[in-house]
Task: inverse folding
């Protein structure tokens, strides 16, 4: 099991080599966990949507992912106009700043950035003059595999421009929206499948718990198995592109609120096995109180940012993840 040292956070060599490779450009897949201090979590977003739209559905952090999709769908069915208005108010407001983790992430030589976020922080950082993301920002429903490269940002679930309200067919959040985007031939599926099959990829800030992800990786695994079988018959060999995911070490609390080390380790081992079945190598990092600053330290170390708080004007330690 790959873990970062709490004393000196440093990415494992195999992951460092993938990110820094000049031969095979790597893709970063960014989830909402890295935006948690600025925008609502999946749980809070769905519950606030339901309250705004008059839906009785509620979810918690332990709810099955299916319930999140159903709750969001019920909110949309109850009051579609309010559903889209709320999303515009939440994610269409100006992004005044970004996180230090995003700053470090965009300093690394990723070829493209994929995100399932609705918040604008990834786009905000991409548009910074110092990062040279020449490919710009692309968003559902106009995703095109041909746009991969040139440090392009791809909003897989839609992008809400500042001061606007989204309309039906531009956002992926509720069940019906997921079904349309991820069905065979859907815009997200058509974009994501060849990316997973052909490009090295590093996931962070996400758990890939959405039900559709199991199907996506299952199809991808079968495609790669058939491809390797054909190559072997032709006397050739090929390895699937490497995939890594950066994950916070679970912190399960007991009834009294104290850390339960045994249950935490058990959950970590179970999750480790789940990702390895998806052909993804987990890399675990300490995240006390759900803070991601040790991940940031590891990313900064990789780009040789020895003293970020002084030479780059960044805040230190656990603030401004």
Result:
């Amino acid at each position: 099991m790959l873990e970062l040292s709490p004393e000196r956070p440093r990415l494992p060599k195999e992951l460092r080599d993938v990110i820094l490779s000049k031969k095979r450009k790597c893709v970063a897949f960014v989830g909402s966990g890295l935006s948690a201090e600025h925008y609502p979590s999946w749980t809070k977003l769905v519950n606030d949507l339901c309250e705004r739209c008059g839906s009785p559905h509620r979810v918690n952090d332990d709810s099955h992912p299916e319930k999140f999709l159903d709750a969001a769908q019920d909110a949309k069915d109850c009051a579609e106009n309010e559903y889209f208005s709320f999303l515009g108010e939440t994610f269409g407001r100006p992004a005044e700043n970004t996180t230090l983790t995003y700053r470090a992430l965009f300093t690394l030589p990723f070829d493209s950035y994929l995100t399932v976020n609705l918040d604008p922080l990834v786009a905000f950082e991409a548009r910074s003059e110092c990062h040279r993301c020449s490919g710009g920002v692309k968003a559902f429903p106009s995703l095109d595999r041909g746009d991969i490269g040139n440090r392009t940002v791809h909003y897989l679930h839609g992008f809400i421009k500042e001061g606007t309200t989204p309309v039906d067919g531009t956002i992926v959040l509720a069940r019906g929206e997921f079904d349309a985007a991820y069905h065979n031939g859907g815009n997200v599926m058509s974009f994501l499948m060849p990316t997973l099959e052909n490009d090295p990829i590093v996931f962070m800030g996400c758990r890939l718990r959405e039900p559709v992800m199991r199907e996506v990786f299952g199809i991808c695994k079968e495609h790669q198995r058939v491809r390797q079988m054909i190559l072997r018959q032709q006397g050739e060999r090929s390895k699937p592109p490497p995939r890594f995911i950066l994950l916070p070490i679970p912190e399960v609390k007991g009834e009294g609120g104290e850390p339960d080390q045994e249950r935490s380790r058990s959950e970590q081992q179970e999750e480790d096995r789940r990702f390895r079945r998806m052909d993804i190598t987990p890399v675990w990092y300490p995240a006390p109180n759900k803070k991601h600053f040790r991940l940031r330290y590891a990313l900064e170390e990789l780009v040789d940012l020895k003293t970020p708080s002084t030479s780059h004007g960044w805040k230190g330690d656990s603030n401004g993840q």
The chain has one domain: 7-38+95-311.
